[in-house]
Design goal:
The protein has 98 residues and is of the alpha+beta class. The protein contains three helices and four strands; from the N terminus they run ββαββαα.
């Protein structure tokens, strides 16, 4: 759930990849055999509409992490972006305590 001043984006389901991994499935060639997107709803006042989401793919991310560790490619997330996310999480924690 992401809440903003102009609306809220809500995804009620867990990432579908988790259930696939629990069954022992693996992405072949970096791709899942089934869709791994989640239903997302954008709420703006009385208006509610579905937002098209992309399939998730942990395999791509971790392949890029492996390559970065081997100095074969850049990191999939920049240090600046990781720090920005950490600041947002810290701010969210502070707000939730109030």
């Amino acid at each position: 759930r992401i809440l903003g001043t102009k609306g809220a984006l809500i995804i009620n389901d867990l990432d579908p990849q988790e259930a696939l991994l629990r069954t022992g499935a693996i992405p072949v060639g970096g791709k899942w055999a089934v869709a791994t997107s989640s239903k997302a709803l954008l709420h703006q006042g009385e208006s509610v509409r579905e937002i098209v989401t992309e399939d998730g793919n942990y395999a791509t991310f971790y392949t890029l992490v492996r390559g970065a560790l081997r100095n074969e490619n850049p990191w999939p997330v920049s240090t600046a972006d990781a720090q920005a996310v950490a600041r947002l999480v810290d701010e969210a924690r502070k707000e939730s305590i109030r």
